Amino acid sequence: MYRVQDQATVNWLDKSGPIRPLLAEPGGYEWLNLSHDGTRLAFVLGGDVWIHDIGRETRTRLAMDASLPLWTPNDRFIVFRHAEGLSWVRSHGGTPPQALTRTNHVQMPLSFSGDGQRLSFQALNASGRESWNLWTVPVRIDGSGLRASTPEPFLITPFDEREITFSVDGRWVAYSSNDSERREIYVRAFPDDGRKWQVSTGGGDYPQWSRDSQELFFQGPDGLIRMTPYSVDADRFVPEKPRVWSTQPIDNRNEIRYYSVASDASRVAAIVRYVSPGQRPDRSVTLLINVLDLFGRQTPTSRLRLPELLARESP
Length: 315
Known about the structure:
This protein has 315 residues and is mainly beta. The chain has a single domain (8-276), classed as TolB, C-terminal domain (Neuraminidase, 6 Propeller). Helices cover 4% and strands 46% of the residues. The protein contains 2 helices and 26 strands. The strands form 6 sheets. Strands 11, 12, 13, 14 and 15 form a 5-stranded antiparallel beta sheet that branches. Strands 20, 21, 22, 23 and 24 form a 5-stranded antiparallel beta sheet that branches. A 4-stranded antiparallel beta sheet has the order 2-1-26-25, with no helix packed on it. Residues 1-5, 282-286 and 291-315 have low confidence and may be disordered. Pfam families: PD40 (PF07676). InterPro entries: 6-blade_b-propeller_TolB-like, WD40. It comes from Luteitalea pratensis.
């Protein structure tokens, strides 16, 4: 099977649905993350981590061969996934990346507790199963940078758990799991006491807590952003029924985070699929049969690239 890579833009969405451009130039954007003060946007493009200054409309490449940028609570540093674990770099650049953890297993940084003293991440199961487990690690942040202690397991099960995210007060973590018929959003206390509360009802991924209100966002399988108000009753997490936050669908083609909630939860930076003028949205995948015969019908002097072949062979 073959599919030509699609392009997207990054836009502001609000509850009423209008789209306002944030990064209007089409590209293969991934892993959005707004700074806590709302002035900068971290994202991945072309396998590198970039920082976009929203007010000045300038962008800076921060780290190469990196992904999953995560701001520290003070916005002074960025933690990201690197080849051999997690690394960090100053968010304004000027210094090379430094190692935070070292491992032979894939680690994906996901959130800091509000006080910045603990980092949550998911890691591939060390037994070789294609599933993810949830971890946290104590972290010290000061003027010189970041230092991590020994990682601690939070949730290790036979299922695939992902996207562990701290609430602002550090009392709760949200995550997704496939321990039911489909992937759903759950909340547990931190530290874990064995209880869990299901938040989503029709599938969900990539939970994000509002920083200023008791709301938990997540992305539905239909590409719509949903929001669940919640309350806390003593030591119980009490979620309300999820509701659609915006009727504007965002990109959801791959297993990456396509949105980032602003601190006041009034708007969201989101990756939206780009359709050029006159182009019809195409959600199909082309299955090639006897592809070698297809190439063989060309003359040696008229070799075509695969996308051009597809265009000629399509009805």
